[in-house]
Amino acid sequence: MPRVDVYDSVVIGAGQAGLSASYHLKRLGIAHVVLDAEPRAGGAWQHRWDSLTMDDVHGVADLPDGPAPGRSTDRANRAVPAWFGRYETEHGLPVRRPVRVSSVTGRDDLLEVRSDAGTWLARTLVNATGTWTRPFVPHYPGAETFAGEQLHTHDYPGPEHFRGRRVLVVGAGASAVQFLGELGPITDTLWVTRREPVWREDFDGREAVGQVLERVRAGLPPASVVSVTGLALRPQEQAAARLGVYDRRRPMFSRIEPGGVRWDDDARDPDESAYEPVDTILWATGFRPAVTHLAPLHLRSEHGGIPLLPGTADVQTAVTAARDPRVQLVGYGPSASTIGGNRAGRAAALAVRRHLTRELVRLEA
Ligand SMILES: Cc1cc2nc3c(=O)[nH]c(=O)nc-3n(C[C@H](O)[C@H](O)[C@H](O)COP(=O)(O)OP(=O)(O)OC[C@H]3O[C@@H](n4cnc5c(N)ncnc54)[C@H](O)[C@@H]3O)c2cc1C
């Protein structure tokens, strides 16, 4: 039987949130390991599509003691991974990869972290697995009969792939807006959304993130931060806007048929056609938190989300699972952005230290 070391903490995921947590755990002298499923540094950024440049992203926050690359025409899927890789080396972070965690279970007072590369035992856990590995596609009747191509943001191959096709973009988030901006000038695009998109001139980021936290506190699944911040058209999208791409939006169709999509009468504007033929459906319908490996810990509420305890400072420091304070979730709910992940990483390291200190006092008593 191989010897299994007991760590004070295991961090799962080496994206922005996991690296930030590891940096702070190291500073606090907490023995830990970071397990990451990817073969290389970069978290989800290494999988972003090639046409996404550092000018296109909404803004990547600094890591602690590690300034972000900043705006440029460099590809985001190269610039951010290169930066993460340097950061891991410069700060000597204990990242092990590729290690895909399959489950975390309670074993006596410890947590057992099982993976395709072995088992780790830990007193606490920092979960930083992001959302990229769980693309979400809503179900619509007839989806399986569609004879054309269906793609999700996760697999967006860049605009050239779509040239000459009739493309239906689904979704009211930032990715949909960007895809329409790229595709509008070179293809025939249609846009459908479940909700009326909220365009914004200005927004209060703190208030928006607070709205996401309220859902998480109530035990509801987290909504994306963009769903409450609203959307803005950036200079890159102005050409498509002048073509009217964003004005031709329709409500969601009722069903999918082999050659296109159909609206039932009650879902249709009388001036619009009941059927639209399309070659490709591009689902820009978001992601869900990648937390299925935590299922054995029963952290979820009856509403489907993992409730978090209130943060010590503000909404982005809410990281501790209400049902098991050994478990910290970073990059989840209110901290699901680069700045949020970054701040949550620090809050998680401090929460881990508090928990370990309390345990020590308990054992000594
Ligand atoms: C297209 C797109 C553009 C975005 N642009 C921005 C932006 O401009 N600014 C911004 O602030 N936010 C942006 N976001 C959101 C932002 O990417 C995330 O909030 C942030 O980068 C996520 O960091 P993270 O560390 O939480 O997760 P990730 O970067 O996803 O890292 C999670 C890591 O965990 C690993 N992992 C997952 N499951 C397991 C497992 N079971 N075992 C082991 N490892 C596992 C993954 O492989 C990955 O390496 C964007 C999101 C998308 C989808």
Question: What layout of secondary structure does this protein have?
Answer:
Layout: E1 6-12, H1 16-27, E2 32-35, H2 76-90, E3 95-96, E4 101-107, E5 110-115, E6 118-127, E7 149-152, E8 166-170, H3 174-183, E9 188-193, H4 205-217, H5 226-229, H6 238-242, E10 249-251, E11 255-257, E12 260-262, E13 275-277, E14 280-283, E15 327-329, H7 338-364
Parallel strand pairs: 1-2, 1-6, 2-3, 6-15, 7-14, 8-9, 8-14, 9-10
Antiparallel strand pairs: 4-5, 5-6, 11-12, 12-13
Helix pairs in contact: 1-7
This protein binds flavin-adenine dinucleotide.
Residues 12-18, 35-38, 43-44, 48, 57-60, 99-101, 128-130, 132-133, 175, 290, 293, 331, 336-339, 341 line the site of flavin-adenine dinucleotide.
Features:
FAD/NAD(P)-binding domain, alpha/beta, 2 domains, seven-stranded mixed beta sheet, 365 residues, binds flavin-adenine dinucleotide, 7 helices
Question: If you had to describe this structure to a student in words, what would you say it looks like?
Answer:
Strands 1, 2, 3, 4, 5, 6 and 15 form a seven-stranded mixed beta sheet that branches. Strands 7-14-8-9-10 form a five-stranded parallel beta sheet, with helices on one face. The protein has a three-stranded antiparallel beta sheet with strand order 11-12-13, with no helix packed on it. The longest helix is centred in the C-terminal third of the chain and has 27 residues. The mean pLDDT is 91. The protein folds into two domains: 205 residues, FAD/NAD(P)-binding domain; 141 residues, FAD/NAD(P)-binding domain, CATH 3.50.50.60. It is an alpha/beta fold. Helix 1 crosses helix 7. It has seven helices and 15 strands. 24% of the residues lie in helices and 19% in strands. It binds flavin-adenine dinucleotide. The site of flavin-adenine dinucleotide has 35 residues, from helix 1 and helix 7.
